[in-house]
Amino acid sequence: MEETCKNVYITTPIYYVNDVAHIGHAYTTIIADMLARYSRLTGHNTYFLTGTDEHGQKIAQSAQAKGKTPKEYADEVSGKFKQLWDDFDITYDKFIRTTDEEHKLGAQKAFEKMYEKGDIYKGEYEGFYCVSCETFFTEKQLIDEQFCPDCGKPTSIVKEESFFFKLSAYEDRLLKWYEENEDCILPRAKKNEIVNFVKGGLRDLSISRTSFEWGVKLPDSINEPKHVMYVWLDALINYISALGYGSDEKEFNFWPASVHLVGKDILRFHSIYWPAFLMSLELPLPKHIAAHGWWTRDGEKMSKSKGNVVNPKEVADAYGLDAFRYFMLREVPFGQDGDFSQKALIDRINSDLGNDLGNLLNRISGMSGKYFDFKIDSKDVQKYHQKELDEVNEILENVEDLIFNMQINRYLEEIWKVLTIANRAIGDYEPWTKMKEGKNDEAMALVALITNIMAKCSILLQAVMPEKISMIAKSLGINIDTKLYNELIVDKGLIQNTIITKVEQLFPRIEEPLLQTAPEVKKDKNEVEQKEEEPDNLITIDKFFETTLKIGTIVEAVEVPKSKKLLKLQVDVGENKYRQVLAGIKEFYKAEDLVGTQACIVANLKPAKLMGMLSEGMLLAAKDENGLCLIRPEKTKISGTKIS
Ligand code: MSP
């Protein structure tokens, strides 16, 4: 967000619809909402976009598992996201869905434009795909030659015709952009990671898939009906299709984005692919891409199987939406990981919100009521308190920069310093003593000083805690809007006369956690170790039995020409049935030594093509630093015997 910018465009990532919203999603959305509210208050023309990402293999698979069509499933989950943001009073201007017709038109137009420009070519993709992350990897990037380096889940080998985007051609232009735009990626440490990654070399990006259908079709002009767009290309385009790219272009004056807010896990997509796509489309690049860290709960990674995922609605219902917003924005420096615990939340509520903010308001209404019949007059504030005013104005003058640099926790810290000046002044000047001494003017000046400090802080906190701040504003008899912002913050002015109204306690003290806590984490060392090793994706026995494991006898084995790894095996799986299996074990076994031996085979694996040949199963094997060995029965068993 630039100070001079009249049009401000703020986006959240669009959320996958294969899961319900959790605290991580709420975090990004709350930051974006805070920025949007702040931008509107400070007089900018603001557009705030959020929405859902609904295509791709992952969503199709989740829908299938629930016995629904992908669209039915997407409608349901997308609706839940929207409902949550409405419950949270999130002030988005548009909620985009990638299944919206206008979005599809935008995505197709972008594809067509990049194709016409010569940045897209047809080829064949062969590599590893993680469905969970919807990301392609090279063999070198995999962990143990199989697992996704980002989420740890198994990848699958994909070999299919695909369109490619010439990402490699944009390497130099990207590096130049990073160099010339210091703050294009925030925080800086994350920017360095990206720059180094790009310097390491970029490969062209596969941007279409043929093995499933749940995606945006390629434009008719390309005439490739088998292909759907790679979900990340489809998804990133939402930022322009939402403004009418490819359809009515109605809001396109908001482009380029002022800030794309993203989690650190999706920064690469936003700071490498997205700018390259935009360069190809000859569109201006976003001003900032800001990556936040990840939330854990009570020091533990959140996962469904541990049952410790924080439900943001539950927290907001129990502790209050504004307290939750304040906690999220205050607790963690932007870009760093944060931990959610009820203890930390309660501490913030009781200390920052209850003692420092809520009590100050009580003191204003208490003193003004007792001494001045709730009437405040600021005429002598400068006479008696210029020093405090200067201190306050100096701090508040600089806080805006912190917002532009996404240092929202620091912004809040600075505002709290100002609240401390107010609380301290009451102790220093003791208005009750002044009243006893008959120095009513001085007492009034003090109460008016505090009221003005409270008004200034409220203006700057409105975007953070809209509901509670509107109660404070009501109590102070002020109306927080751009005009008042200009008068009190920009011009450093004072409210002259006002009447205080008593309000109920804003942040009642909380003694006990209000939510049932997450399953206890065992402190015993062995148990902790066990816990750490426990996989995230525990399954039920029924799930395990979905895999059919059988004893197979290898009846034929030959090397696959031109492959360093593959052997082609014919495996007898009983009842005179043979399965062709392509196994990556050539470095560890000679083909002829395998014939006649037995192995364990996954017998209900969907057939896949490897190097143009069908593979109809998988052999179980174990690999460590000493090499790989097949898992075999201890004694010979009849071919086809089920393993359980
Ligand atoms: N659909 C993509 C984004 C496409 S944007 C063109 C996606 N969706 S997501 O639903 O998986 O994640 C959305 C956001 O939630 C990401 O920014 C991610 O970082 C954030 N979070 C998911 N889990 C999180 C935490 N535990 N903590 C903080 N944020 C995390 O990625």
TrEMBL record:
Keywords tagged on the record: Aminoacyl-tRNA synthetase, ATP-binding, Cytoplasm, Ligase, Metal-binding, Nucleotide-binding, Protein biosynthesis, RNA-binding, tRNA-binding, Zinc
Cofactor(s) essential for the protein: Zn(2+)
Motif 'KMSKS' region, chain ranges: 301-305
A biological-process GO annotation: methionyl-tRNA aminoacylation
Residues annotated for Zn(2+) binding in this entry: C130, C133, C148, C151
Compartmental location: Cytoplasm
Domain of life: Bacteria
GO cellular-component term (any): cytoplasm
Single GO MF descriptor: tRNA binding
Motif window: 'HIGH' region: 15-25
Record-listed E.C. numbers: 6.1.1.10
HAMAP family cross-referenced by the UniProt entry: Met_tRNA_synth_type2
The protein's assembly and partners: Homodimer.
Family membership noted in the UniProt record: Belongs to the class-I aminoacyl-tRNA synthetase family. MetG type 2A subfamily.
Job description of the protein: Is required not only for elongation of protein synthesis but also for the initiation of all mRNA translation through initiator tRNA(fMet) aminoacylation.
Stated name of the protein: Methionine--tRNA ligase
